[in-house]
Amino acid sequence: MIMKKLIIILLASANIVISGCNSNKDSKEKADSTNTHQDSIHNKQTGTGDWAISAPDAKFAVEAANGGMAEVELGKLAQEKGTSKAVKDFGKMMIDDHSKANLELKELAKSKRIVLQDSVGKEEAELKSKLASIPANEFDKAYINAMVDDHRKDIATFENARHKVKYPEMKVLIDKALPMLKMHLATIEKIKMQTPD
Question: Which ranges are annotated Polar residues under compositional bias (predicted)?
Answer without folding.
Answer: 33-48
